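Q: Here's a chain of 374 amino acids. Please give me its 3D structure as tokens.
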Amino acid sequence: MTISSPRVLIVGAGIIGAILAYDFSRRGARVTVLDRNERASGATAGSFAWITNQTKFRNADTLSEAGARDYFNLHRLSHLRWRHLQDEVKAKLPIRWCGCLQLAIPGTQQATELDAELQRRLRWGSPTFKVSAAEARELEPALHPGDETFITYTPDEGMMAPVQMTAAMLDEAIALGASYSANDAFASLQRTAGGYTVTSAKGKREADIVVFAGGIANPELAEQVGLKAPLVHSVGSVVHLAPLPPLFDKVVLGSHVHAIQRFDGRVVIAQHFSGSPVGDPSAPNPEQLVEVAAAILPGLKGAKVEKVTETRRVIPADGLPVFSRSDDNPGIAAITTNAGVSLGAILSQLIVTEMIDGLRVKLLDPYRAERFTA
């Protein structure tokens, strides 16, 4: 049974919470978004923000070929929806479909893995292709591959400014009637005859649907209402450089450093797009990482480090998103993913369809929490 104009409360104002607010509002729901801090102040703020459709995942050794293909296709659907949202919303969304260059030294294990990923992408319909070092420099004149001459190019990937994207989608939701309450930490939830009573730092609210999209806080929040899934904590650091003139356009993923230049001229670098391991004694310090980046992007030589963000993330144990619901509380759900930038657009659409229309969305089945107890 569906409810006309349901009262929806979303816990968490990161990128997932913001697009959920927009999608629920667009369906006529009365939406409130709570955040214990300010919007986009958690994992979203520290995101590398590569919009990817990669096939090699954290769980590459355990995920079946069919499971990897399904996850790849979910990314592709999400990219399509991001493009649709760029046309649909009034704001100019901070997305650049610039393409991505991935580099490795021929003969290395990394090159072998990159070639295997290329073959899977091609089998599954990706436009990724291999390019020579000279062709890579034509595509990205700022790039000097050096020894990293095993190079693939994916033209339909891109990047976004995650904090600005969160603000834009939340503002669009507010324009549709949603409300946003910052510094308003969730405290508890009670089942009532008419739905749920949510208590937060700023009082009580009634809701028909409650969705937890709290990132790092999701395990604690979800367990309070009986939603459980195996989640692990990860900490990664991302180096942010002071604004530079336009230097390079594409996402560049080298053997030892990944780099993106954002709209404001700031360059974000890390050993890996999920962040450099924090506390690893073998990891370079920020200034050393700039030198590593300058080896393939010489324009970064001498660039000033503006800040380093150390971001805590909650990662599902098998690397895939976790969508949790309870038979006892059908109006409650939680979504946790380490790929919110890439997958936020499609996950939100599917979750809103399931919660508003009262049906089971098949595309969510591989990502339900029940897979851990099946």
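Q: Can you summarize the key feature?
A: The longest helix spans residues 65-88.
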